[in-house]
Amino acid sequence: MFAEGLKGIVAAQTLISHIDGKEGRLIYRGYEIGKLTRGYSFEEVAYLLWHGRLPSQDEVNKLERKLNENRCLTPYLMELIKLLPKTMDMMSVLRTAISSEGTLEYCWKPTIDQAVKLTAIVPTIIAYRQSILKDQMFIEPREDLSHVENFLYMITGSIPSKLVVSALETYMILTLEHGMNASAFSARVTASTESDMVSAITSAIGTMKGPLHGGAPSGVIQLLNEIGTPKNADKVIREKLLHGEKLMGFGHRVYKTHDPRAISLKDKLLEAREEDGWLDLAMHVEKVAIRILNELKPGRNLYTNVEFYAAAIMKSINLDLELFTPTFTASRIVGWTAHVLEQAENNTIFRPRAEYIGEIRGGV
Ligand code: ACO
C-alpha cells in the first residue's frame, strides 16, 4: 500500500502522548494538556514524559538540580560555536553543536540522563550564539533559576517577570511533545538503527528546521506584518490563497478541528493582554482566514495550529524572530528524547519500501 507522506499510517505504538484530531484533544501520558499547563512546571511535565508518571517533590527537585548542573557549555563547544560562520542560521548552529556532543558518553543504549543533559544545554547554546552574533557579553546560566526563567535570563540579561515566564512556560509545555510528527519520526528512525541519542536528536533538529514544521511561527509574523492592519486581511489572504500559497500557522496533518494548543495559547495571551493591538490583529486574521479557507478550500477543515499563537506569544515576550524555531526546539527536545527512549525499549529498525514507478529498460 502506498500512502503519500505516510498519511494515516501508524508507524509505532506509543505510551507517550495521544492526539485526538477529531475532538481536538492532546494528552501526555494520560493527562489532558490543559490540566498540565495550568498546574505543572516545565520540569514536572518533562519528568512525566521521560518517566511515565508525575514526580514527587523530591524527584522534581533532583531533576531541576540535574538540569542546572548541566547548563554550562564545555570550552570545546564554545570554541566550536564561535568558529561557525556568522551567516549560519540558529537551527543549523543547534544541529551542529548538538551533533558535536556525540562522544562515548552518548553511545547506545539511550538513557534518561542523556536526555536531561541534551535538554539542559539547548538554551545555553542559543543564548551563547546570540551573544556572539550581537557582539554582547555572554550571560552565564544561573543555577538558582528554573529552566524557563534561566533561558529568558540568558537571552535578555534580566530576571523575567512572572507573567513573561508563565507565557513562555505555557508555550513550552504545550510543545514538548506531539506524537509521530516529522521530527519525532526522524529521531525514531535514527534510533531504530541502534545509533546513539545525539545522532537521533541531530536528525530531529534537521527535520524541525523546515518551514512546514518548526519554521512556521516566523512565517506567521511575516504574514501579520504583511497584512499590517485589519482592513487589509481579506485582500492579502485571498491573494495568497489564489496564488496557491499556504497560510503559515493554519492547517495540521492530524487536527481537523481547532488545535487545542492554539486555544490554550490564545487563552494565555488574553490573560496577559497588552494594549499594543497585535493580538487583536492576530485574532482578526484568524477569523478572516478561516472564513476564506472555508470558501476557497471547502471540506479541508483548516484552522489555526499551535504556531499561529506561538508567534503571538514570542512577540509578546519580545523574542527575536530568529529565536522562534530554536525555542520550539528547546521544548520539543524533551519529546524527541522520550521517543528515542521508547524506541530503544522495543526496537525494530524502520525500513519501509518504495514503489518503483520507472520503466524497466532493456539492457546492452
Ligand atoms: N493554507 C492554505 N491551504 C492549506 C493549508 C494552509 N496553511 N494547509 C493545508 N492546505 C490545503 C492544501 O493546499 C490542500 O488543498 P488541496 O486539497 O486543494 O490540494 C489541503 O489543504 C490538504 O493539505 P495538505 O498539505 O495535504 O495537508 P497536510 O496534512 O499534508 O499538511 C501542513 C499539513 C504541512 C501543516 C499544512 O497544513 C501546512 O503546510 N500548513 C502551513 C505551515 C504550518 O503552519 N506549519 C506548522 C504546522 S504545526 C507544527 O509543525 C508544530
Verbal overview:
It is a single chain. The chain is mainly alpha-helical. It folds into two domains: 15-212 and 321-345, Citrate Synthase, domain 1; 216-316, Cytochrome P450-Terp, domain 2 (Cytochrome p450-Terp, domain 2, Orthogonal Bundle), CATH 1.10.230. Helix content is 55%, strand content 3%. It contains 16 helices and three strands. Strands 1-2-3 form a three-stranded antiparallel sheet. A hairpin with a 4-residue loop joins strand 1 and strand 2. It is globular, with a radius of gyration of 21 Å. Residues 5, 212-213, 216, 241, 246-253, 297, 300, 302, 305-307 line the site of acetyl coenzyme *A.
Short description:
The chain has two domains: 15-212 and 321-345, Citrate Synthase, domain 1 (Orthogonal Bundle); 216-316, Orthogonal Bundle (Cytochrome p450-Terp, domain 2). 55% of the residues lie in helices and 3% in strands. The chain is built from 16 helices and three strands.
Share of β-strand residues:
under 5%
Q: Main β-sheet: number of strands, strand sense, barrel status?
A: 3 strands, antiparallel
Mean pLDDT: 93
- What is the 3D form? globular
Rg from Cα: 21 Å
What ions, cofactors and ligands are bound?
A: acetyl coenzyme *A
Assign the CATH topology of the largest domain.
Citrate Synthase, domain 1
Query: What helical percentage do the residues reach?
Result: 55-70%
**Number of H- or I-type helical stretches:** 16
> What sequence of helices (H) and strands (E) makes up the elements?
EEEHHHHHHHHHHHHHHHH
Q: Using the 3D structure, state the CATH architecture of the largest domain.
A: Orthogonal Bundle
Distance between the termini: 33 Å
Per CATH, the superfamily of the largest domain is Citrate Synthase, domain 1
Low-confidence stretches are none
Number of strands: 3
Pathway: Carbohydrate metabolism; tricarboxylic acid cycle
Pfam families: Citrate_synt
Family: Belongs to the citrate synthase family.
Protein name: Citrate synthase
